[in-house]
Amino acid sequence: MNVINxxxxxxxxxxxxxGWKIVDLKELIRSRELIFFMTWRDLKVRYxxxxxxxxxxxxxxxxxxxxxxxxxxxxxxxxxxxxxxxxFSLAGLLPWQLFENSLRNASRxxxxxxxxxxxxxxxxVVLPLSSVLACIxxxxxxVPILIFMMIYYHYSPNIYLxxxxxxxxxxxxxxxGVALWFSAMDVLYRDIGYIxxxxxxxxxxxxxxxxxSGMISNPKLQFIYNLNPMVGVVNGFRSSLLGVYxxxxxxxxxxxSVISILILISGLVYFxxxxxxxxxxx
Amino acid sequence: xxQNSVIVSHIGKRYRIGAAPASYRxxxxxxxxxxxxxxxRLHGKMTDANSFWALKDxxxxxxxxxxxxxxxxxxxxxxxxxKILSRVTEPTVGSATISGRVGSLLEVGTGFHPxxxxxxxxxxxxxxxxxxxxxxxRKMDEIIAFSEVEEFIDTPVKRYSSGMYLRLAFAVSAxxxxxxxxxxxxxxxxxxxxxRKCLGKMxxxxxxxRTVLFVSHNMSAILRLTQETIVLEKGxxxxxxxxxxxxxxxxxxxxxxxxxxxxTPDEIPAEAAPFVPVAIRILNDQGNISDTVRSTxxxxxxxxxxxxxxxxxxRVGIYLISVRGEFIFTSFDVxxxxxxxxxxxxxxGTYISRCTIPADFLNEGRFVLGVxxxxxxxxxxxxxxxxxxxxxxxxxxxxxxxxxPRTGLIRPRLSWEIEAKN
Lengths: 282, 422
Fold this sequence. Notes:
The structure holds 2 protein chains of 2 kinds. Chain A contains 12 helices and 1 strand, in the order βαααααααααααα. Chain A is mainly α. Chain A has one domain (49-281). Chain A is globular and about 60 Å long. In chain B, the strands form 5 sheets. Chain B has a 6-stranded mixed β-sheet, with helices on both faces. A 5-stranded mixed β-sheet of chain B has the order 12-20-19-15-16, with no helix packed on it. Chain B folds into 2 domains: 4-252, Rossmann fold; 260-393, Coagulation Factor XIII, Chain A, domain 1 (Distorted Sandwich), CATH 2.70.50.60. Chain B is an alpha/beta fold. In chain B, helix 3 crosses helix 4, helix 3 (118-128) crosses helix 5 (162-174) and helix 4 (133-147) packs across helix 5 (162-174). Chain B has helices spanning 27-36, 78-85, 118-128, 133-147, 162-174, 192-207, 219-225, 243-253, 337-342; strands at 4-16, 51-63, 67-72, 93-99, 102-105, 180-184, 211-215, 228-233, 236-242, 260-262, 275-283, 292-294, 299-307, 311-312, 314-322, 327-332, 345-346, 349-357, 365-375, 379-393. Classes of the chains: A mainly alpha, B alpha/beta. Strand 1 (11-14) of chain A pairs antiparallel with strand 4 (93-99) of chain B, so a sheet runs across the interface. Chain A: It holds the Pfam family ABC2_membrane. Chain A: Its main location: membrane.
């Protein structure tokens, strides 16, 4: 007979939950294998029965780069901070697509997995979280293309390359935070599924992907513009990677971080409050 | 003192009725209220008018290592109770304390992905059910053997037949080995051979000193697998007793005593449409509805139902079942192939299917009548294994000159001959 690994004293108390709690970290750590398997499932399934498979992770940003280069770079002559336009846009598109894909997948994750939610208990936050994690893999698949482009245009990063992991982390935090809001709302209002593509599109134009943030010169407008944490992230990612930085942009980093973390915390709180009703309402 | 592995105290669960919220609310209001009025729930306050208690003041204990049966009619709150105990949903009031890992078989195959192979789904499903990776690897061979899908284990499950799919899904759940196992009607899975295997696995679980909570409509399975049973009626716990006693109570009190049964809309599952069961009646030979009939007279059964749309190939029938859950017979109104031709399509309308159980057939005692409306191998519209209970009085039956109970469910009047050879 097999031995039960769990200690004898695991006691679970079931009662109506009350009060404010951000996230049950202990429980989340206990669910790490589930997070791993859900991430693995997302990855495994995403490109099944596609001819090009994981190549899509590269094709998507590259095609967008081509379109942007033709219309924004070529025809509209959008200023790109002195960087060759294709490289400029790709360096913005990579963190952006990480953000957008995470946001889209994670926001729909609860409704997509509704049969799990109504049948079995597990920390619900595992679903948006693993969706986001799966998108990180796609991001790294596309990175070699960016490196290739940098070599082609003779751009090399400097010491500020070390800031890149930090920008990736901020992207994840922001997308997870927003996705927590959307996914919980999606349980109640399926409108969310229709709203997300518009929000993503709008958000992209409010982020310096296709154009340089230098275009916004009015200081009042600039402040509002910078409320979008992805502005700091995309600018930072591009500048550190392409070696444009000469100093660490402390102010921008702090500002973006504060806003990202606020979004994440508020998302966790909202998610937590709605969580107990998911199984009844979904 | 025996240890309790489940202690439920005063649990209640309130659900909102209907989809329409009491007042129109905008998206924005909902967002704002979430933060400004944390006490206020989604669609405002629940009142008695817009909500109902699916469970009310439920309290019971389950000793460690005991198998507890949960019985009740459709809508009595059995599934809600299991959902609360497996933490899928929260109770509105009350609390429960559970000692040990809970494994739930509320639905097998949760999280299965059609694109993944059988082996991959075992890992995934295991993780969802709370198994460790190492634990799954260790049991992999055992799970595959149990599922009987060895040759296809590296094929995506979307290529599986539904039987293979269910077997694989059940195999993972069956190897979970939790301290507390929660089961809801999984026995409807697969063919008879596989069901036998599942029941065997469940009694193994019970024998290993684990606690089992078992919801079923199958009284013989309840009697076989559980020691104690609770009876739920309209969200309330009406009895907790040794299983034989509780099943007896359920079968005799859970039913109408008048010899007929009328189905109310909340007892008819949505998937029954367009079949609507109306009533089933037992009539004695004088044509009166009665819950007690004489074994020496024919017993008439009437099943009334409506078809909201025409159904092709419909067969409507009855089961006769003993109070211990053994099937005595199954019979359909179109068993006669000529009649089946005649009624190959039944139009929209109200119907009564009548049959007669011949005199001198049943032994005295209590019997359960079930109904089934289905099309062969296509769809089971409606199915109720405990539609009605009736009593058979044995006065005048063969052999009643000796006042002793006769074993057996039937008591036919056979034509005996005695030949003296000398």
